[in-house]
């Protein structure tokens, strides 16, 4: 009894550590075990089914094994050869039929769900179409029906099928919103697009991740999916399509145009940009996908990011302030302008 308690006492901290590690710590949930939409729910149900069947098999096999080891062990002085069961039809039928039944229980719903989840809603007029392009290390979301593009924060209406078409601008990444569903590769260079649909029944912000090793900042390639009501989504679309708001100060405006808008875009001016569209960046939850604006101010985060982009996201393509010859005054002015550039929706 004492001994068992000692073992328990040693295992307790380990168990506590595992619980901390396995439970989502802070921020939006990155767990597939707490599904927030029908796609993730179906994937979760399949996991539950397969793990239950596996657990059942393990328990039954181990129970029989332990029983046989104890019940039929060789006793002292016993020299007889046990009864041979080779060619026993009953046994052979049992160990063939039982696994076939288990495989059917596992296989039929798996095939059903897998094919069900690969349905294509790109021709469905009720579905919202979103084109996803992955870049090292950020995400671009284009809404072809509305002619708008945004970066890092996907905005979607609740209660609609969202049909994604996904490809990569550079290397292979993978699109994954663990609590909503996924994941799917965004392929590089092959010209092929992958398709995936998701549904967001509840309003909220859901965290997305790149799920394919793509370079030194792979683990920092986060994005957000923000599910809002249809009315709010319509307001967002209108705000995105409104004429760009430019810096009021002419010196800051000039610096912004010459040093930022060569790659970025704001407002309707969003064709062929090679960097995230900055329209309404002040309303986003993060800067660069990982600097949270509720920890430091948006302005501070923009300055931290632009001052040394390689420190924040090693290997990314965004030049730092000194490469852009940004003066401190220009950096301060641009950071303030962008932080104040909010969308009302
Ligand atoms: Cu992109 Cu990993």
Strand content: 15-25%
Number of strands: 12
CATH class of the domain at 128-240: Mainly Beta
What binds here, in terms of ligands, is: dinuclear copper ion
User: Which stretches are poorly predicted, pLDDT < 50 over at least 5 residues?
Assistant: none
In terms of quaternary structure, the protein is single chain
Shape: elongated
User: Helix count, per DSSP?
Assistant: 8
The portion of residues assigned to helices is: 25-40%
Going across the biggest sheet, name each strand in turn.
3-2-1-5-8
CATH fold group of the domain at 128-240: Immunoglobulin-like
Subcellular location: Cell membrane; Membrane
Cofactor: Cu cation
Keywords: Copper, Electron transport, Heme, Iron, Membrane, Metal-binding, Respiratory chain, Translocase, Transmembrane, Transmembrane helix, Transport
Membrane topology: Multi-pass membrane protein
Describe it.
The chain is of the alpha+beta class. Among the domains are: 113 residues, Immunoglobulin-like, CATH 2.60.40; 91 residues, Cupredoxins -  blue copper proteins (Immunoglobulin-like). The chain is built from eight helices and twelve strands. β1 and β2 form a beta hairpin. α2 runs antiparallel to α3. It binds dinuclear copper ion. The site of dinuclear copper ion has 9 residues, from loops. This is Cytochrome c oxidase subunit 2.
């Amino acid at each position: 009894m004492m001994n068992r308690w000692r073992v328990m006492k040693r295992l307790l901290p380990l168990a506590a550590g595992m619980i901390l590690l396995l439970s989502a710590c802070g921020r939006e949930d990155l767990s597939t075990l707490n599904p927030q939409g029908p796609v993730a729910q179906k994937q979760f149900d399949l996991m539950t089914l397969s793990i239950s069947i596996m657990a059942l098999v393990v328990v039954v096999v181990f129970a029989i094994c332990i029983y046989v080891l104890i019940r039929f062990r060789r006793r002292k002085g016993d020299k007889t050869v046990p009864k041979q069961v080779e060619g026993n039809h009953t046994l052979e039928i049992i160990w063939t039929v039982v696994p076939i039944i288990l495989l059917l229980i596992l296989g039929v719903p798996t095939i059903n769900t897998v094919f069900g989840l690969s349905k294509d809603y790109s021709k469905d007029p009720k579905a919202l179409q979103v084109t996803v392009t992955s870049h090292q290390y950020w995400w671009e979301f284009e809404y072809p029906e509305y002619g708008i593009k945004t970066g890092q924060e996907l905005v979607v209406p609740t209660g609609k099928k969202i049909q994604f078409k996904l490809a990569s601008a550079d290397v292979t990444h993978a699109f994954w919103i663990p609590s909503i569903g996924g994941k799917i590769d965004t392929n590089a260079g092959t010209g092929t697009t992958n398709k995936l649909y998701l549904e967001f029944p509840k309003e909220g912000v859901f965290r997305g991740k790149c799920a394919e090793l793509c370079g030194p900042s792979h683990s920092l390639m986060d994005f957000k999916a923000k599910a809002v009501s249809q009315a709010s989504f319509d307001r967002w679309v209108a705000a995105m399509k409104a004429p760009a708001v430019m810096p009021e100060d002419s010196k800051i405006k000039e610096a912004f145009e010459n040093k930022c808008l060569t790659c970025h875009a704001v407002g309707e001016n969003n064709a062929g940009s090679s960097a995230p569209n900055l329209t309404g960046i002040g309303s986003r939850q993060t800067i660069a996908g990982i600097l949270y604006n509720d920890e430091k101010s948006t302005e501070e985060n923009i300055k931290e990011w632009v001052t040394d982009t390689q420190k924040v996201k090693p290997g990314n393509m965004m030049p730092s302030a000194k490469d852009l010859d940004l003066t401190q005054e220009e950096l301060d002015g641009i950071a303030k302008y962008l932080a104040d550039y909010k969308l009302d929706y």
